[in-house]
Write a structure and sequence with these properties.
Strand content: 15-25%
Order of helices and strands: HEEHEHHH
Pfam families: PaaB (PF06243)
CATH superfamily of the domain at 5-62: Phenylacetic acid degradation B
CATH architecture of the domain at 5-62: Roll
Number of helices: 5
Protein name: 1,2-phenylacetyl-CoA epoxidase subunit PaaB
Helix content: 25-40%
CATH class of the domain at 5-62: Alpha Beta
Organism: Jeotgalibacillus marinus
Number of strands: 3
Strand order of the largest sheet: 2-1-3
Oligomer: single chain
Largest sheet: 3 strands, antiparallel
């Protein structure tokens, strides 16, 4: 039974970290028949070029990407006006209008009603 190339090899994404305090960074993709060989190929590629303290390989099929509907929902999360004080500028005008409608002592006394004790 002969296997086709695309059935034998799997795609892996490679990430590496240069120092213990650095963040993981994406490097490249590679084809390998399994995870162990993918790690060996990634190590061979990096160890010749630069020092690294960690390498991660992730099978591409294990990476979940967002659906078009999920990406569309991100736009609603982009509205951060509530975090800016300029978004509350209307409150000053609203407060002024409220203060003008408030009853003051003179207005209440002008009604001429007597308070019973």
């Amino acid at each position: 039974m002969s296997l086709k190339r695309h059935e034998f090899y799997q795609e892996y994404e490679v990430f590496s970290k240069r120092t213990h305090t650095a963040t993981m960074q994406y490097q490249f993709s590679l084809l390998a028949p399994n995870e162990e060989l993918a790690l060996v190929l990634a190590q061979e590629n990096f160890m010749r070029r630069e020092p690294v303290v960690d390498i991660w390989i992730v099978k591409r099929s294990n990476i979940r990407k967002m659906s078009p509907d999920e990406r569309a929902s991100l736009s609603r999360l982009q509205n951060k006006d509530y975090r800016n004080t300029k978004g509350y500028g209307y409150l000053k005008k609203k407060w002024r209008h409220y203060e003008q409608e408030m009853l003051d002592e003179k207005e209440i006394l002008s009604w001429g009603g007597k308070i019973k004790t």
